Amino acid sequence: MFERYRPLVFAVGVLLLVVSVVLPAPEGLGPEGLRCLGVFAAGVLFWVTNVLPLAVTSLAVLALLPLLGVMSADESFALFGNRAVFFILGALVLAASMISTGLSSRLALLMVSRFGKSARSFLMGVLLSSAFLSFWMPEHAVAAMMFPVVLEVARALKLPPIRSRYGSALFLALAWGAVIGGIATLLGGARNPLALAILYQTTGQTIGFLEWMRVAVPLCLILLAAAGFLLDRMAKGDPVDIAPCREILLRKLREAGPMSRPERRLAWIGIGTVGAWAFLGHEFGLAQISILSAVLLFVFRVTDWSAVEENVNWGIIVMYGGAVALGSALVQSGAAHWLAVQLASNATLGPVAILLVLATTTLVLTEGISNSAAVAVILPIALSLAEYRGIASDQLIVFVVALPAGLAFCLPMGSPPNAIAYSAGYFKLRDILVLGLLLKLVGLVALLVLMFWVWPRFGLTI
After folding, report:
1. What is the pLDDT along the chain (462 residues), one digit of tens a residue?
2. Can you give the C-alpha Rg of the chain in angstroms?
3. CA gap 290, 91 in Å, rounded
4. Backbone torsion region of residue 29, taken as left when φ is above 0, otherwise alpha when ψ lies between -120 and 50, otherwise beta
5. C-beta of residue 179 within 8 angstroms of C-beta of residue 139
6. What is the 3-state secondary structure of 299-325?
């Protein structure tokens, strides 16, 4: 939408950088901090407008930080090797192998076919299957994998695009299931490992695989219940005979045949990897386990490098490097602390109100920019703000920012699953906007309830 304004956006970005170099630093902020804020402002502008690919903006950030004297080149480029980058690299290789071997499609068919007894149960099956698969795979990969299955079912049932309420609900179930499931673990979305990387670079703390799940899964379950209710209401009054659908799924499973040797090997490696993440993550490190699992895929000839190259989104990895470097630079240069002081000194908000503002801001911002970019923009400042205002748990701040960043329900551009489902043409933008806003409101209320009555049991105190 900003394509026609590209020259203006670039000019504003360059102007922000020039101003940060030319102007004297304000009281309490050094020259390096001011220049870091210039890089931050330009990066946010380019991320929000998307006039450059996210990965390209991150590359620019990596180069600008040493160029403007914010940090040394060795420091800037070394941050690209952050442990979170290698964790997500291994996870993406594992997901790519599931796609190339056909194991992911088999799992989708098996799960959805179990719910094919009625139209209502099939709708819930699509929602829950997408969510469960997003526990263990990137949500965009789950949506891409489930899309042809749901589209073929919709066509077999002769559901007219736009006019079929059941068809609209079916594709929204695909999108929302993948989005909701993506917040539950560290594997469903890029923003989760990125948030851990920023936390580690800023405070030296981290969050384990099971620790993340015990905090995020309750929110995930609440949202799945709310989404199921909204979708069931949406599809009500549109009678559908589900019998042809069941026949299609069973035929596809027969065509798939028995599990191949690579699929079986991948299944065992995948189970072992998740188990190691859950129970050995603190001792051996999530990134080390992730990389070793990726190596095992080639040792046992589960996949080949050409399949990995085809199915891994390398831009996500590059985007990580720039975002982690920028977050670290904001902290090291004192820019994040200075911003937090300015925000806190000009507001009379208490800790609870600050957390609410952070969550709401992230919920809104993630509909317009990449959820990883939303985390990269908000989290470094939020951590400094929390320290200044005396919020006890840095890990709480991570969840308050990272979880809402994954809840993009309203717009097709908000997340890849939304865009993929919208491309089928079975629902209007108005449908996803109205229901998506309701679901976001449920998510915000649930977040507050969990924050006060559940998360303190895990040491996440305000």
Report:
1. 556 778 898 999 999 999 999 999 888 889 999 999 899 889 878 877 778 887 888 899 999 999 999 999 888 888 777 776 787 788 778 878 887 888 877 877 777 777 767 888 889 989 998 999 899 888 877 887 788 778 877 877 788 888 888 888 999 999 999 999 999 998 887 788 888 888 888 888 888 889 999 999 999 999 999 999 999 998 887 777 777 777 777 787 788 788 899 999 999 998 898 888 877 776 787 788 889 999 999 999 998 888 888 877 777 778 767 877 887 787 788 887 787 667 655 556 677 888 888 888 888 778 766 777 778 878 888 888 777 666 668 899 999 999 999 998 887 767 778 877 887 788 777 777 888 889 999 999 999 999 989 998 888 877
2. 22
3. 6
4. beta
5. yes
6. HCCCCCHHHHHHHCCHHHHHHHHHHHH
Matching residue, tokens 């559901």 = 159
Q: Which two tokens stand for residue 48?
A: 């929000």
Token pair 């690299």: residue: 89
Match 């590209």 to its residue by tokens. Answer: 6
Report how far residue 171's alpha carbon sits from residue 422's, in angstroms, rounded to the nearest whole number: 8
Reduced 3-state DSSP string for the chain: CCHHHHHHHHHHHHHHHHHHHHCCCCCCCCHHHHHHHHHHHHHHHHHHHCCCCHHHHHHHHHHHHHHCCCCCHHHHHHHHHCHHHHHHHHHHHHHHHHHHHCHHHHHHHHHHHCCCCCHHHHHHHHHHHHHHHHHHCCHHHHHHHHHHHHHHHHHHCCCCCCCCHHHHHHHHHHHHHHHHHCCCCCCCCCHHHHHHHHHHHHHCCCCCHHHHHHHHHHHHHHHHHHHHHHHHHHHCCCCCCCHHHHHHHHHHHHHHCCCCHHHHHHHHHHHHHHHHHHHHHHHHCHHHHHHHHHHHHHHCCCCCHHHHHHHCCHHHHHHHHHHHHHHHHHHHCCHHHHHHHHHHHCCCCCHHHHHHHHHHHHHHHCCCCCHHHHHHHHHHHHHHHHHHHCCCCHHHHHHHHHHHHCCCCCCHHHCHHHHHHHCCCCCCHHHHHHHHHHHHHHHHHHHHHHHHHCHHHHCCCC
Task: Give helix 139-156 / helix 103-113 axis angle, nearest 10°.
Answer: 50
* C-alpha dihedral sign at 95, 98, 104, 105: positive
Report whether 367 contacts 411 (CB < 8 A).
yes
